[in-house]
Amino acid sequence: MDRRRPTIHDVAERAGVSVSTVSKAVNGRYGVATATVDAVMAAVAELGYESSLIASSMRSRSTGVIGVLVADFEPFSAEILKGVGEALRDTSYDLLAYSGSRGDEEGWERRSLSRLSGTLIDGAIMVTPTVVKASADVPLVAIDPHTGPADVPIVESDSYGGAREATAYLIGMGHTRIGYIAGRADLRSSIARDAGYRRALADAGIPFDATYVGAGRYREATVREVAIEMLSTPNRPTAVFAANDVSAIAILQVAAELGLEVPRDLSIVGFDDIPEATRLPVPLTTVRQPMGRLGAAAVQMLLALMRGETPPATHLRLPTKLVARQTTAPPVRQRAG
């Protein structure tokens, strides 16, 4: 006997409609004809789908699931997800990681929240969202949000302080030609890291030079193009600060291709401290942001909202820490001996 639990696909097939139509019908959304809703609900009853997550949520008004929306499952998002999962371990909630991004298309979170809210999730955490304002039928928290005015609680790291410390560290080693490869211009964190870099230069009396700055936008191919151009000039930087570790790793690869030895010819500092940072042939000096704690803090904030409470804080900024490894050293011209 087949004891497999019926799925939403089974319901769609039995009713002769699409999966999205089933979702709309069981969630009571507009745009579905009454006859179609009746057909879907008949299929739900016939297949015993009332024991499924969606049908149960219709009765209890709760799914027991928290969604985490990420544009890509890259290292930063993966570490955030670990933190969220750990924070949910001793709760009654399950975790649903969801990515509905289509390349650079903006606003995918809005569509995803519309699909998930009230049907599959009780609350959502958005990681590096593209939206300025988000509306949904469930509580929301944003990690590393967009630059616009936020209408949801925020959890982020001290990007300004971390970037300032990283740049000051390179200056303290004797570097004065320090490049910076920036991240996404639409993120608060990227703007803060740019400001921290500039502040450290100003503090040391080093003039800002726009030729030492490039927009990598957290895209490996773009970072490579910027790095090749920056490091191929006669008066190239002796050190580069990258807005994240993935970008720093791409710069390491470019340096090797150009015949530059790290750190003898070029010092490199990243930002994040992803696990890969310690596994490189030359371990990466980087700014550690507490990615797991970001996820855990977002969970606590979200749970408070879901209980109808006001969180102790609706904007958390967690400290960062510089971690010195083997990709940084004084510039050759100023070394002793």
- Category by helix and strand content: alpha/beta
One letter per element, helices H and strands E, the order comes to: HHHHEHEHEEEHEHEHEHEEHEE
Question: Tell me, what's the shape?
Answer: elongated
Q: Strands across the major sheet, in which order?
A: 2-1-3-4-5-11
**Rounded to an integer, what's the Rg over CA atoms?**
24 Å
Helix proportion range: 25-40%
User: The biggest beta sheet, please?
Assistant: 6 strands, parallel
Q: What is the average of the pLDDT values?
A: 87
Strand content: 15-25%
Low-confidence stretches: none
Question: Total helix count?
Answer: 11
Number of strands: 12
User: What is the straight-line distance between the termini?
Assistant: 81 Å
Keywords:
6-stranded parallel sheet, Peripla_BP_I, 12 strands, LacI family transcriptional regulator, 11 helices, 6-stranded mixed sheet, 337 residues, alpha/beta, transcription regulation, DNA-binding, LacI/GalR-like_sensor, single chain, elongated
